[in-house]
Write a structure and sequence with these properties.
Shape: globular
Radius of gyration: 20 Å
Mean pLDDT: 82
Number of strands: 11
Helix content: 25-40%
Number of domains: 2
Structural class: alpha+beta
Strand content: 35-45%
Number of helices: 3
């Protein structure tokens, strides 16, 4: 076998890997670069993970939706993509205004994944995850952030035109 073929093959493999990594990076940061900035009300959950480092785990008012809003026929499945309609409140904080399996043609909306409730007590609700449920912080700020967010906060979120969201910052109320 010719050495130039081996060299070209190695270069092609390395370039392919770099393109895949660049694609992952661009996909993750696309909402931050091109998205519309909105504010969402948060409710904190947990500040640390041994595997992921120090972070504030966030939950939103829009993290739980009524089952009747989206699934009157009982066809919803775990991890289905759902679009959450948002409207701006009087205070500039966006609120839930509906849900659909179909992407809205206009207006502000978030793309999320449907999850079944963990207990039977919440059987009439679905949980929705948007990929903005964690804010990573340096170790020295994690404990302080947890204390400050005990009464909730305001998340600054950027939303791309396809509904994908990226967490920009969290403000203490």
């Amino acid at each position: 076998m010719n050495k130039s073929w081996i060299y070209k093959g190695l270069v092609a493999v390395v370039l392919f890997q770099m393109l895949v990594l660049a694609g992952v990076f661009i996909t993750a940061f696309h909402p931050l670069w091109t998205g519309t900035e909105i504010k969402l009300r948060t409710v904190p959950i947990d500040p640390r993970s041994l595997f992921r480092g120090h972070y504030a785990r966030l939950r939103y008012d829009i993290s739980t939706i009524p089952k009747s809003d989206i699934d009157s026929s009982g066809v919803a499945r775990e991890n289905d993509i759902v679009y959450i309609c948002l409207r701006s409140g009087d205070d500039g904080i966006y609120e839930y205004c509906g849900a659909s399996f179909e992407k809205p043609a206009s207006g502000m909306f978030l793309r999320g994944r449907l999850h079944y409730p963990r207990t039977r007590l919440d059987a009439q609700k679905y949980n929705v995850r948007y990929g903005i449920e964690a804010l990573f912080t340096p170790q020295e700020k994690a404990a302080n952030l947890e204390k400050q967010l005990r009464n909730g906060g305001i998340a600054i979120v950027k939303i791309a035109k396809n509904g994908k969201a990226a967490l920009k910052n969290v403000l203490v109320e």
